[in-house]
Automatic annotation (TrEMBL):
<feature type="region of interest" description="Disordered">
    <location>
        <begin position="1"/>
        <end position="32"/>
    </location>
</feature>
<feature type="transmembrane region" description="Helical">
    <location>
        <begin position="967"/>
        <end position="992"/>
    </location>
</feature>
<dbReference type="InterPro" id="IPR036412">
    <property type="entry name" value="HAD-like_sf"/>
</dbReference>
<dbReference type="InterPro" id="IPR008250">
    <property type="entry name" value="ATPase_P-typ_transduc_dom_A_sf"/>
</dbReference>
<feature type="transmembrane region" description="Helical">
    <location>
        <begin position="78"/>
        <end position="95"/>
    </location>
</feature>
<feature type="transmembrane region" description="Helical">
    <location>
        <begin position="107"/>
        <end position="126"/>
    </location>
</feature>
<dbReference type="GO" id="GO:0000166">
    <property type="term" value="F:nucleotide binding"/>
</dbReference>
<dbReference type="InterPro" id="IPR023298">
    <property type="entry name" value="ATPase_P-typ_TM_dom_sf"/>
</dbReference>
<feature type="transmembrane region" description="Helical">
    <location>
        <begin position="998"/>
        <end position="1016"/>
    </location>
</feature>
<dbReference type="InterPro" id="IPR039720">
    <property type="entry name" value="TMEM94"/>
</dbReference>
<dbReference type="InterPro" id="IPR023214">
    <property type="entry name" value="HAD_sf"/>
</dbReference>
<keyword id="KW-0472">Membrane</keyword>
<feature type="transmembrane region" description="Helical">
    <location>
        <begin position="328"/>
        <end position="348"/>
    </location>
</feature>
<feature type="transmembrane region" description="Helical">
    <location>
        <begin position="291"/>
        <end position="308"/>
    </location>
</feature>
<feature type="transmembrane region" description="Helical">
    <location>
        <begin position="1093"/>
        <end position="1111"/>
    </location>
</feature>
<keyword id="KW-0812">Transmembrane</keyword>
<dbReference type="GO" id="GO:0016020">
    <property type="term" value="C:membrane"/>
</dbReference>
Amino acid sequence: MSIPDDTYTSFTRTDTDAPVISSSRRSKSKDQELTSEEALKKLIQAANHILAEHRKSLPKISVLTWTREFLSRKDSKLIILSVILLIAFYAYGAIKSDRYQFRLTGILVEAIMILLMLIWNGFLYFREKRASLLELTLRVEKIIEQMKTTEIKNIQEMRIPFVPSITFTKVFRDGIESTIPTYLLVEGDIVELFFGDVAPCQMQFIAPTDADLSPSKLTLNTNEVFKPSFFSEPEPQLLLDNHISNRGRYRFKIIETPWANNLKCVLNQRRPATVLCRQAQVLEDVFFKKAIFIIFAIVFLMTLPRYIVYEVIKSDRRNQALESLIVLPVYCILPILPFTFPTLWLVVRSFSNATVLVLFELLQISKTDYEDDDEVDEFDAEAPPPTKNVHLDRAAVWSKFRYLLTQWDLSALPRTNNLFESLGSTTVICSLDREGTISSPYPSVKQIFFPIENEETTRLDVAEDPEMPFGVRFEDQDWSQYMSSLKPLGLNLLLNTTCGALQGRKRIDQHQKWSKLHRYAKTKPARQSCLCQLGKEIGFTDDALQAFVRRKEIYAFAPYHPSLRERIRDDQWELPIMVSLIYEEEGSGSYQLLSEGHAEVILDSCSDYWDGRGLRPMSQAMEKKIYDFYQNAIVNDLQCIAYAYRPINTENGNPIPFLDSPSSSNIAFIMLPPSEDYVVYAASGSNVSITTSNPPSLSTTPTDLSRSQLIRLKHLQAGQLEANLHDFVFDDRVTHKDEEKFYREVINGQIFLSMATLGHEPKVDVRDFIEDLNLAGIRFVYFSPTAERESKAYAEELGLETDWNSCILLSSPGDANSSSMGYREPHDIKARLPRGVGSIRSHLTKVDDIPLHVSLFAECTPSTTLEMMKIFQEYGEVVCCIGSSLNAANAQAFAVADVSVAMEPMHTRVQMRNGMWCASGRGVKEGLAVGAMLNSLPCALFMQYDTSLYALTDVIREARRLTNAGAAFLIGSYLATSILLILSSCLFLPPIFTGYQILWIMWIICPMLAFSFLFNPHEADTMTTMTGKNNEHLKDFKRFVIYFVLRFFLPICFCIAVFVSSLYYFDGQHDLSFVFGSYGNVDWLKLDSDQQWALVYAQNYALFAFVWYLACTSSTFVHRTLSLRGFPPFKNRMWVAMFFAR
């Protein structure tokens, strides 16, 4: 079967990775590609449909309904009752009083002010409730409006790598194949998948027109890995022909819109209430269910006997009942009613969020390093984390504060995310990805493995060179003794690279190579890491490569390799591929074949190995050592690349004619079919299937070998792996079959050189970051998709605990992606660990709380990760989630976490400003920007790729400072005011404060001083203090009561003494009848002017003493535990200003 030339024209390009043009001559199908405009319309329509459904499910925004809801609150009822009683008393006093009592006018003003404050609080309640309800929805609408008015640029300026933390799909639109984020796909899109790709949504295979297939049955489900086993019905030969004609690419039709499904989940997710919110609820229960009734009962029971005995029996003054029994108790409960709390909370939240957002943006802009404080010993294991010396621009903070206070910030979502409250009380930080977030996106070389003499092997450890960007060095001091073994490898590494570094190109991102292989197959990140620096470390220079000219690239695919028949987890599944490059040495005219690729395919192609001194035939013992090293590396979370070589000898040293032919493609394809036959697609555009005999029977081979090892062993015993070093002979007229035969033969009989293992290295500061989190009482949790052993290997790199009971498997036995053996340690050690996320809750209830202390979870999927985070929250953990902004699987986890941070997994060259994406040009948005914006919809913070994770500890430190500011002082001051009024009543004194004086303290003095605590300087122990969980609210309330009594008992007594003395002095009667008792022998509604002024003066003196004390004692709240000498309050300039402005 021949393939027309027009089917491969777009794959013979030799320039840069420009987008592939979809020709009308491509194999036809009934499905038509969408245009970009049509796709955008579909995406917007799907989003609008989800939004419309979501709005229907929301409570109706009804002023009348919400007004009733507000007025039915306990505090609203008490305030309304207080207003009614005060107005009633004013009317009663106006009728009964003989003389003008200006105190009555004050009571009327007080009632009006309280009523106005109630209306204002109702307005804030309505505003905030509406904002919380619609904030996320409006953000979606804003994004949709941006997509309507701007053009989405799908052709990226960067090449998209294959890493798990970045989900992209190749789609055909406008006759162009482009790579776009998964969330930009829509129903009806035509996409291309490689073997190993994960389906972002449900999609249907588009069968070739000449294939007798049933597309309705060939459907990929969401998150299903596309494997050769997907095709179960067709004959193998049909698949081989189809694979060759498509160059390993298969077309599918999207049958659902991915973003619509996740958008529905994101909109319906509800985060738990914050610690501060639940503490406020606890205080509300304490005050409104107990304290208010206790206060009212105490005052009523103390004044009732006095009223009966002194006013009724002795003096027969019954008209003071309303004031004595009602108004005085009302005054006593006024201080603990939440008049100013809504306004103060709005101000504090807006200012705190503004501070956090401005600081976070400044930390990302600043290029200075993180350093320990001068007073901190760098060797102190309990030292707080380092900080960056940045100057927080107060003008920027105040500007952001005004914006957050008056506008709806749809970028930070302050009401949805509860930014500063959640950051300040975070107890768990969950990492959803590793590539590009907590590790570099590309793995770095760890070890070099190669054969030596006497059928032995050795390995050399390789590490990054801190003195050279992207440089590497051997850690073994005696590595040079293996130079004869390393030289062929070094040449292979340098000639196999396409990173551009050898041409002197400057790099701003990770050192990586770009092969045309990424057009035809999905590869592991290790295959994208460039190791040319290792070749230079071995000793090669750029000049040594000038004599070599690349003539051909040969891609060998093995989608039906025997190794794939083993049970392989989805995260480890990789299509075995070998890339072979043919180089011509211009001086001598000789040809070399240099290969790299999957260890299984390389071993299949090697008949000999190089031991540093000469060629040795590949033996069973050597093959086993190589394979054992490969398997051991895989289970230790490493990726392997094998290297091989062979000379290409021609008769009389003649040139190979078709390698220089201008009509020949520079790429040839070879595929190993299920029957172990090779199908070759050469440059001429034809393919041929070469049938070989079936492999020998495997019945006599050892059973402890893998399937691929058994086949190689049989081939080795049958002599089928002998060296193929004969001279190639070419006639004057070379046919396509001759060319195909050459490619088939030249990749066999190679010489095994070595194998490199690569692993993901944690980013700079990540290990120290995790260690400092532990000191701050924050547990770092990593959700790993790999098995237990691989997960523990990477956890060791992070510095996490990997002893027994340190890892829990979230997969259940029998799951498609679970390990069959379960826990690797002995059963008696692991007996108390649950297996599967479904058994976590029962384990926590019936056994112990070990799952709440484990930092590593293995065999995780997006759904199990999501469920485990919910379990954390159920047991009081405050979860901060960090993950890739370009991983579609993270969206729901972002929505569930208390606070989420989207991280840039690699340099995307996308700009951000104030948490919002910026267009790359006028009216143009990068597809990357839009995809990340859709994926990180619930996130409040976006962290750029080169930002250190210490920026997160900096904002947590700032949020803790803001969270701890003022709450204890405010509660203590209000309680002290209430108790002062209670004691004055119990001592049969006139009211120590008037109503408007109480409101002055509550509405002006205390909020001013409390607000100044937002400007407290940082405390040294902020990040070494443990925070409480979200189920341990006010557990130290008894301690607070003790501290409150110690702080306020003497001042309360002092203020009463000032009041009594002042009243005695200004009365002028020089007896205590006016001080103690019922205002003397005259009815209080008939007090003369002198008596009224005496009471006012005494109340003002008492107010002055009390306010002065509040101002002075507030200095001790600047730091609640250190002495004033150790932490002077004058460091807080705002507090100093408020102290003198009170």
